[in-house]
Amino acid sequence: MSDKLTSTSGEPPINVRPWGRYDILDSGKGFQVKRMTILPGKRFSYQRHARRSEYWTIVAGHAVVTLNGKEMKKTVGDTAVAPIGTKHRIANVGNVPLVFIEVQIGDYLEEDDIERFDDDFGRMT
After folding, report:
1. Phi and psi of 62, rounded to 5°?
2. At CA 44, angle to CA 41 and CA 54, rounded to 5?
3. How many CB atoms lie within 10 A of CB 20?
4. Is the pLDDT of residue 1 over 50?
5. Average pLDDT of the chain?
6. How far is CA 45 from the centre of its chain?
7. Distances from the Cα of 101 to the Cα of 34, 58, 118, angstroms
8. Domain residues of the chain, as ranges?
9. Res 83: pLDDT
10. Is residue 13 within 8 Å of 5, Cβ to Cβ?
11. In whole angstroms, what separates CA 13 from the centre of its chain?
12. Are the beta carbons of 33 and 101 closer than 8 angstroms?
C-alpha cells in the first residue's frame, strides 16, 4: 500500500498508514495541523519525538492514550499533550474510526523525527 495517494480533485494528498490515515489541514513555520483517523482495533507506534510536541483533541470515537507508560481513556472533547521527549501512543479501543485533531509544535515537523519503541506493523527505528 502506498503511503500517499494523490487526489485528482486538486486537494492535498491523503496519507495512508497501516493504522488508518492522516490529512494535513494547515501548516506554517513551527506548526502543523492534522486530522488523524485510526481504524478500529489499531494504534500508533509507542514513540517519541526529539523536536516536536503533539496536542490531541478527540472529535469522534474512543481512545486509550499512553504517555510515558501511563494509560488514560479519552472520548469526544477530551485532550492530551505529548511534550517533546515524551513516549506516547494513541489506540482506537472502539468499534468505529477514532478521529482526532493533532497540532504539532516544534522546530522540525517531518515524519523522520520518530523514535519507535514498539510497533504493531514492524516499523522499528
Report:
1. -130, 135
2. 130
3. 19
4. no
5. 91
6. 9
7. 6, 7, 23
8. 26-109
9. 98
10. yes
11. 16
12. yes
Please report how many Cα atoms fall inside a 13 Å half-sphere around the Cα of residue 64, on the Cβ side. 14
Mean pLDDT lowest among 8-12, 15-19, 26-30, 83-87: 8-12
* 61 three-state secondary structure: coil
Which residue carries 485532550 as its cell?
79
Are 39 and 48 in contact, with CB atoms under 8 Å apart? no
Give every CB contact of residue 75 below 8 A, 6+ residues apart in sequence: 58, 61, 62, 63
SS3 content of the chain, % helix, strand, coil (to 5): 0, 55, 45
Residues 6+ apart with CB under 8 A from 72: 64, 65, 66, 80
Grouping H, G, I as helix, E, B as strand and the rest as coil, residue 82 is: strand
For residue 97 the three cell numbers come to 474510526
Report the CATH number of the 26-109 domain: 2.60.120.10
> The pTM is what?
0.87
Q: Which cell numbers hold the place of 23?
A: 490529512
Per-residue pLDDT tens over the stretch 44-84: 999 999 999 999 999 999 999 999 999 999 999 999 999 99
